[in-house]
């Protein structure tokens, strides 16, 4: 498998965690997003969205990090990334999507650049990212506040944790407030796991 | 089941299609989003994100439209909303997420309001929505251009179609270009199905 990604991309980071949890081997192909390498003709032929990550598996190309994680979970079910009960699965997926749909895309590089093109200065752009992340994580913390830990949904890592941890990385990068006790508990538990530790941006080959 | 939604919300629209395809009955509870009813304490207790839709099932609350659709598909597998092959499932989910993560949230009411608060005038805000929708749908059309129709992924309706059709509604509302032949083929095929016809915004009880 070839993971087309970028060290600091939180969507790539999610896939790295999932690959690690499943104990899979992969090779990296990295793109300097700020230089626009993800919009080259060669990459657009792989992923017309011009976004990382993409996962190549035996010549087939998969895009969208959550779809990739679910694919890995279906092919390599141990350890599972989703609970077995349909209602619990829906809660885990809903939490993951609350970040993957309603926080991350609204603070990613592409959107922040569009804001700059509309005349927002750097402070305003950073403030936009902080507002989106803080209000989003506050809602996410409420989704799991009454649940037992140490992970988002109990004593097993799920897709929810895989999406939360990279978003906390983004939160710190933009100086967003992340003092939610339940989220801190999840982060501490995840950080103790080798798959999460190995997937952090600083440990990637293209880290700056 | 109670669907908490709004006639014009494309995420609510997705869930209505899925409920209809499965032949399920539900009751509607509607929120006037422009009046902020989705941010009432009562609704935030149901969904801390303050977004529609939410689906109440026997007192449990599910959020995020794609998670709700997958829940319905797991509980009521006929007709299936995803192919049986893991790679095909990943492609369908990836396409759905290309819209649900990278188009819709960036042009929804909440974000357009944030842009207005940052000083963009109405023309600029509408232009933002058009740009996001046009570039997003162009990428989506490339994801399915080489696939047999009439639906996004062959001769069976999938989650991809459920997400695409409401996004085309948004596209028209903002005057975005949608002249992609493959997408037009999908739309014509879906519009011929009763579940899609019944789910359109104009046919909802709260339509203005």
Automatic annotation (TrEMBL), chains A, B:
Residues 1-80 form the GST N-terminal domain. It holds the Pfam family GST_N_2. GO terms for cellular component: cytoplasm. One of its GO terms (molecular function) is maleylacetoacetate isomerase activity. Residues 85-208 form the GST C-terminal domain. SUPFAM superfamilies: GST C-terminal domain-like, Thioredoxin-like. It comes from the Bacteria. GO terms for biological process: glutathione metabolic process; L-phenylalanine catabolic process. Belongs to the GST superfamily. Zeta family. PANTHER family: MALEYLACETOACETATE ISOMERASE (PTHR42673). NCBIfam families: maiA (TIGR01262). This is Maleylacetoacetate isomerase.
């Amino acid at each position: 498998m070839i993971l087309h990604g970028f060290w600091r991309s939180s969507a790539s980071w999610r896939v790295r965690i999932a690959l690690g949890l499943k104990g899979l081997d992969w090779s990296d192909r990295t793109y300097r997003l700020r230089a626009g390498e993800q919009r080259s003709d060669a990459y657009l032929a792989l992923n017309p969205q011009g976004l990382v990550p993409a996962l190549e598996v035996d010549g087939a190309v998969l895009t969208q990090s959550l779809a990739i994680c679910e694919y890995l979970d279906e092919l390599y079910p141990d350890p599972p990334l989703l609970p077995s009960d349909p209602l619990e699965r829906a809660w885990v997926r809903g939490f993951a999507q609350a970040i993957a749909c309603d926080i991350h895309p609204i603070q990613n590089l592409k959107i922040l650049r569009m804001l700059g093109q509309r005349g927002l200065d750097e402070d305003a752009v950073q403030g936009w990212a902080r507002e989106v992340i803080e209000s989003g994580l506050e809602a996410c913390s409420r989704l799991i506040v009454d649940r037992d830990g140490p992970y988002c949904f109990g004593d097993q890592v799920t897709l929810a944790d895989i999406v939360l941890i990279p978003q906390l990385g983004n939160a710190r990068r933009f100086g967003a407030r992340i003092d939610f006790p339940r989220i801190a508990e999840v982060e501490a538990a995840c950080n103790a796991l080798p798959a999460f530790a190995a997937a952090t941006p600083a440990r990637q080959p293209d880290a700056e």
